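Hey, I was hoping to borrow your eyes for a little while. There's a protein on my desk that I can't quite get my head around. The fold is given in discrete form, as structure tokens running alongside the sequence. I'd be grateful if you could look everything over and explain what you see. Here's the protein in full, and shout if anything looks odd to you:
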Amino acid sequence: MSFSPEAAETLALKALAWLITNDDLLPVFLGATGASEDDLRAQANEPAFLGSVLDFLMMDDAWIIAFCDANDIAYEHPMFARAALPGGEQVSWT
């Protein structure tokens, strides 16, 4: 399955919205990325930033499960969406 860039951005925006409402996880994201709450607002429409949101969530299975369960999304969809955003391309080293 592949996502269009537009569908990937939509899913990543859902992930960002979910992250913003998560009082326990939002500070972890801000600390890990060095972003501020103002940065979240300013960069929410940038595909590369949205990719970083998905990268962060995919660091922990529990976070992906919680996000997907809360939004009725298949668990593998964030991975497919991430691949459609800048920096998500698979690199072949051979």
Q: What stands out?
A: The first helix runs from residue 5 to 20. The chain has a mean pLDDT of 91. The chain has one domain: 5-84.
